[in-house]
3-hydroxyacyl-CoA dehydrogenase NAD-binding domain-containing protein (Streptomyces pyxinicus), 660 residues
Amino acid sequence: MNHTPTPTLAPYRRAAIIGGGVIGVSWAGLLLARGVEVVVNDPREDIEDLVRAGLDEIAPALADLGLPTGNLAAGLSFEADLATAVAGVDVVQENGPERLELKREIWRTVEDAAPAHALLATSTSSIPATAIAAALRRPERLVVGHPFNPPHLVPLVEVVPGEKTSEETVERARDFYTALGKKPQVLRKEMPGFVANRLQSAMFRECVYLVAQGVVTEQELDEIVTSSIGLRWAVAGPFRTFHLGGGPGGLPQFIEHLGRGMERDMWPALGRPSFDDATVATLTEQADDAFGGASVGDLAAERDRAQITLMRALRETPDDTATATDGARA
Amino acid sequence: MNHTPTPTLAPYRRAAIIGGGVIGVSWAGLLLARGVEVVVNDPREDIEDLVRAGLDEIAPALADLGLPTGNLAAGLSFEADLATAVAGVDVVQENGPERLELKREIWRTVEDAAPAHALLATSTSSIPATAIAAALRRPERLVVGHPFNPPHLVPLVEVVPGEKTSEETVERARDFYTALGKKPQVLRKEMPGFVANRLQSAMFRECVYLVAQGVVTEQELDEIVTSSIGLRWAVAGPFRTFHLGGGPGGLPQFIEHLGRGMERDMWPALGRPSFDDATVATLTEQADDAFGGASVGDLAAERDRAQITLMRALRETPDDTATATDGARA
């Protein structure tokens, strides 16, 4: 096992990024800022322009995170032939379309062409490693490394081993993402949507219901979240929160006093909305009211700045996490 | 209407806090720190000791929030007779047990004994104002002011009018909580659990499921949340997040490209766990592993400090919100 107490990027001189979309560009920017050479493989003719424009867009956030962005593109290259692209790399992070057959084809080529020591990870949010690796000679080498978008900013990476992924691969992936300044979390079981997207999806379902029912507008609901549960869950997750909300007896006391009532009265009453025409019309109209005054790009940049402010306060920016031993987070 | 652009606490010289439990003490501490006299009404014989001990416990957090706590108890008094307690107050915040008949009895007494100008609010998390006010001569005076626990720390107060609550009462409640440094949000419709608890409950259901299924432990799930959706939702709520995650087309584009897949594949697959013996045993054992090393009180104090660090970074502590015009939050 390669697991070390303080993982470094030393073993990762060169990375292949397969697929230069939003996720691929974000990974590329983060790797380049951390001094790793990046070769981008993407069949699109205008991929160089797209990636360079994307890097320009995320450079301010990388700089805000305390990473050097002076000459990001110095270590960047492009290679349209997949086998050539992955020859000589130390890690492959694949961000192709979410289609099983296409991913299998990509990974069969990578398996043959990449060095035997290369770490092989897919950013997929929906396809289990087991399904992709079924097409490989050495399924133990492939692991899911699913970032929470965008990877250069949000700390979480869900590391999801397939049935045949080796423990060594899992540990190497964990170390690699840790060295990149991310917060990898290894899941114990493959589950559609993994964890973060399932949780997000469960909550969003109720959000859509409450807006469709006219209880609140989108903007009002967002304000409720940022001023209560969002604020809470940024420093303590749901279990810790309810452990602390249960009195001196902690979570077991919470379950007895409030959890059983939640199961009986609240869970069956949760909404089952649908994106029917009326709901979509309401959601669209309110989104325009709430967010229509500025471009998505400008709003995203504003949100990212606030995000970094918060991460800095919690000592969770990459420059802090590299050295901090007394983070503010509970 | 009493609604003013910058509401102040000037009209609120004296408050009655009915019920001196955790919520009542938290309201009392916040009011006292903001210079409002507080009379606590609670039938328990040892209520004075309980409240004073509770105030000592939250004083450090109030001080961290930038509020004066030098002589909190100077404005504090106790009155076991409800009618006497509410005579001469400017606002009543009731935090009694969640039993409809008891609340009706309390509020009938308050309605007769409190001054005609007093703002009347109940902290209830589960009983609609309409149901309580049905017992009152002037139902237009009562409104729900449901804090997210603990009220002295978490900004949200859900202001939920009953069918007969007057607009004037709603506006006065909004102004009162704003002047207290809270972030009141007026709901447009009564709904069991209001909004924040419904959302929390929807997400927690999936949390329990994923732990019961062995996909992650409680601690791992908490870390996933704090390093992804919690961090996100502290600065931008779910609708804004998906508006920004949908590409240049915003939320409508998100719904078409990802929302419909979420409805089709994810929502029906969400878990339906139950607090059966096996699940409770798992949750209890993991809570002990994750949180058992320290007392609930110490962990809560640590969490509250992290919370205040985050609020200060976002300029959302009471001293900041009173003056800031350029908050960092998106």
Observations:
- The CA atoms of residues 209 and 273 of chain A lie 5 Å apart.
- DSSP finds 14 helices and eight strands in chain A.
- The beta strands of chain A are 14-18, 37-41, 76-78, 91-94, 119-122, 142-147, 156-161, 183-186.
- Chain A touches chain B through 109 residues (CB under 8 Å).
